[in-house]
Design goal:
Layout: H1 6-25, H2 38-48, H3 52-61, E1 71-76, E2 82-88, E3 93-98, H4 112-119, E4 137-141, E5 144-154, E6 159-164, E7 169-175, E8 182-188, E9 194-199, H5 215-218, E10 221-229, E11 234-245, E12 249-255, E13 263-269, H6 285-288, E14 294-301, H7 302-310, E15 315-317, E16 320-323, H8 325-330, E17 334-340, E18 343-348, E19 354-359, E20 362-369, H9 370-378, E21 382-385, E22 391-393, H10 395-398, E23 399-404, E24 409-414, E25 419-424, E26 429-434, H11 436-442, E27 450-455, E28 460-465, E29 477-482, E30 498-504, E31 513-520, E32 528-532, E33 547-548, E34 553-554, E35 565-569, E36 572-580, E37 583-585, E38 588-592, E39 596-603, E40 612-616, E41 621-625, E42 630-636, E43 641-646, E44 659-665
Parallel strand pairs: 11-16, 36-39, 38-44
Antiparallel strand pairs: 1-2, 1-32, 2-3, 4-5, 5-6, 6-7, 8-9, 9-10, 10-11, 12-13, 13-14, 14-17, 15-16, 18-19, 19-20, 20-23, 21-22, 24-25, 25-26, 26-27, 28-29, 29-30, 30-31, 33-34, 35-36, 36-37, 39-42, 40-41, 43-44
Helix pairs in contact: 1-2, 1-3
This protein binds (dicuprio-$l^{3}-sulfanyl)-sulfanyl-copper and dinuclear copper ion (CUA).
(dicuprio-$l^{3}-sulfanyl)-sulfanyl-copper (RUQ) binds near residues 135, 461, 462 and 527.
Length: about 675
């Protein structure tokens, strides 16, 4: 395998030599003395058993200390309920953002403010402490990522979260009022007016019990359109609404863009209305939901749906505005297009005119032409109606082409050179194919043809290309989000990490090249998006001392140094405390057993990275208080005793001295 011919070595050494030359003669010229001579590269490579391709891959991903990655990837954290922030191409983990799950390092879910945000997502008051994050969606302006906000859904309980990328913190969690299951979220419309949350497993939308024998009549699917207020950085729930859909299992969605702006696409499976029950002699879901050759791509006229909503054509279900299936059908908001065999994914091309749908059990991707779909709707070119009366558009009238890409196609991403990339789950590979005639021509290929394939390790789900699902893809890099890693990493027991593999897609004449493996040891990441790093404008420190990240404004209880105090009124004790290297003021807090304690802590530092923690034993608190931030904890001092609290961030040489006593008298 590892043929190390003199020629290859010479080429690799030349590449590295050039690289070193570029680095030393560039802005890091002052580090020239630290670089390794090219002769050493050869001996290191020999000692480590690296071949020339390995060396090139290493050089393409290595980001020297102090230099930053060109891209940032926001990956779902799967059932950790969090979001991963990863630098590309280094694949270094930069942050894990607490979203649906308490996260102690960030104090997420411990302070009063963050607890309230988490609690707002509880269904009917039931406390949840996990989430299954699936699809992160960066906010967009004119179809392009703008780096301001990130949305993500929780499939397990149908929740949606809003993360503000000024401080990379979760600001809002919303429980979907009509369903406990989502999957087709989150996706945004080209100017982020709407955040889309499509449901998955059908259920009665009023939250009541109904027997599975009444599946057809009482169970329903849904898609919810959450109105986003960019100024406030919040979803406005009472300006949001949902559509009632047949009880097919709606799957992934995507928003139209450019020519298809104002339209939403949502694929589905289980149009068989299978209700499982293998133990009762029924076909199991996996077979029952795969009987038909075709399921339905839902084509939704969002503009029209919004008009109907604004005209008051909704009914209230669970206190939420819902457009009934009947209204949708009467008004022509909802149309179906047949889609082949257990479809998955629906990805709109950068020009907005084509929709790519994979069939999990079909080696093809099917490409639909949106212009033809629109025409078919206008001309009522329907082949039938489904059992709920929804028109089914004539398949042949709207299909552009079908391309055989390989086994188990799932998801598709795009680059700026007219290539599409489709993940192949069963084949453990990524297929690269050409879009349309114009692009295929430029590459000297037949229209819509498969041009290259690369193996990945293993069982790939989603792909993320640099800005690869917006109107201006960047190309360069593609990350394959692999579900299994099998033999790729050192054994860590039967539960294996998943594997993010970085692939170089910049060579548009030659092949794709695998560059790097990144194990993911938390949850099962589903989707990710990769944004150009210079589009992100995160704050260095909070804008003012006494800042509430939850309100993204000054906190009424934020204090300046010198304003610290303890106030008692009856059984209520309120503390305004400051934190600065390396002490809290006050350091002693005296209360009596049974007192109601409200404790505000402000980090009065202005230096970047000067974060202080606040760990209080027994009472179960940890806070992360970043420069300028104010956080509050509120509790009843129900146990008498001595409780040493301390700073949980190693903030200074005298960090161990940054402590105090919370004294609860019996
Ligand atoms: S999907 S299983 Cu994004 Cu392929 Cu969730
Ligand atoms: Cu502040 Cu350690």
């Amino acid at each position: 395998m590892r043929k190390q011919t003199m020629y290859k070595w010479a080429a690799a050494v030349a590449v590295l030599g050039l690289l070193i030359f570029m680095v030393t003669c560039g802005k890091n010229g002052e580090q020239a003395g630290q670089t390794t001579a090219s002769g050493d590269v050869q001996s290191v490579a020999e000692a480590r058993g690296l071949n020339p391709a390995d060396l090139v891959a290493a050089a393409k991903t290595y980001v020297p200390t102090g230099q930053h990655d060109e891209y940032v990837m926001f990956g779902s954290g799967g059932h950790s309920g969090q979001v991963l922030v990863i630098g590309v191409p280094s694949m270094r983990l930069l942050k894990v953002i607490g979203v649906f799950t308490p996260e102690p390092w960030q104090g997420w879910g411990y302070s009063k403010e963050t607890r309230a945000i988490l609690k707002a997502g509880n269904p009917a008051g039931k406390e949840l402490n996990w989430g299954d994050t699936h699809h992160p969606a960066l906010s967009e302006t004119e179809g392009d990522y703008d780096g301001e906000y990130l949305f993500i859904n929780d499939k397990a309980n149908a929740r949606v979260a809003v993360v503000d990328l000024k401080d990379f913190e979760t600001k809002q969690i919303i429980k979907n009022p009509i369903s406990l299951s989502d999957h087709g979220g989150t996706f945004v419309t080209p100017n982020t007016e709407w955040v889309i949350e499509g449901g998955q497993y059908a259920m009665p939308l009023n939250g009541e019990y109904a027997s599975l024998d009444e599946y057809k009549e009482k169970y329903r699917g849904m898609i919810t359109f959450w109105k986003f207020d960019r100024e406030k950085g919040r979803i406005v729930t009472d300006e949001s609404f949902a559509l009632e859909l047949p009880p097919y299992w709606q799957d992934l969605s995507d928003a139209g863009k450019l020519v298809s702006d104002g339209w939403i696409f949502l694929n589905s499976f289980n149009t068989e209305l299978s209700t499982g029950g293998v133990e009762e002699g029924n076909p199991p879901f996996e077979a029952g939901a795969s009987q038909r050759d075709m399921d339905y791509l839902h084509v939704i006229n969002l503009e029209k749906a919004v008009e109907l909503y604004e005209a008051g054509k909704t009914t209230k279900v669970g206190g939420f505005d819902l457009l009934s299936l009947e209204t949708l059908t009467e008004e022509g908001v909802l149309n179906f297009v047949p889609e082949p065999k257990s479809p998955h994914g629906v990805d709109v091309t950068p020009d907005g005119n084509f929709l790519v749908i994979s069939g999990k059990l079909d080696p093809h991707v099917t490409v639909y032409n949106f212009t033809k779909i629109k025409e078919a709707i206008e001309n009522e070119n329907f082949e039938t109606r489904d059992e709920y009366g929804v028109p089914v558009i004539n398949f042949d009238a709207v299909v552009e082409t079908q391309i055989e890409v390989g086994l188990g196609p799932l998801h598709t991403q795009f680059d700026p050179n007219g290539f599409a990339y489709t993940s192949l789950f069963l084949e453990s590979a990524v297929a690269r194919w050409t879009l349309g005639e114009e692009w295929s021509d430029k590459h000297g290929k037949e229209p819509w043809s498969l041009v290259d394939k690369i193996s990945v390790h293993y069982n790939v789900g989603h792909l993320a290309a640099a800005e690869g699902d917006n109107v201006n893809p960047d190309g360069k890099y593609l990350v394959s989000l692999n579900k299994w890693s099998v033999d790729r990493f050192t054994n860590v027991g039967p539960l294996l990490p998943q594997n993010f593999q970085l692939i170089d897609i910049s060579d548009t004449k030659g092949n794709m090249q695998l560059l790097y493996d990144m194990p993911i040891g938390i949850g099962e990441p589903h989707y990710a998006q990769i944004i150009k790093a210079d589009k992100l404008k995160g704050w260095d420190v909070y804008p003012e001392i006494g800042w509430s990240p939850g309100k993204q404004a000054k906190d009424a209880n934020g204090i300046q140094p010198g304003q610290e105090q303890v106030k008692r009124s009856g059984k209520n004790v309120e503390i305004w405390m400051s934190a600065i290297r390396s002490h809290y003021t006050p350091e002693r807090v005296n209360v009596k057993k049974g007192d109601h304690v409200t404790w505000h802590i402000t980090n009065v530092e202005r230096a970047k990275d000067a974060t202080h923690g606040f760990g209080l034993p027994y009472y179960n608190y940890n806070l992360s208080i970043e420069p300028g931030e104010t956080q509050t904890v509120e509790f009843v001092a129900d146990k008498a005793g001595v409780f040493p609290f301390y700073c949980t961030e190693f903030c200074s040489a005298l960090h161990l001295e940054m402590a105090g006593y919370f004294l609860v008298q019996p």
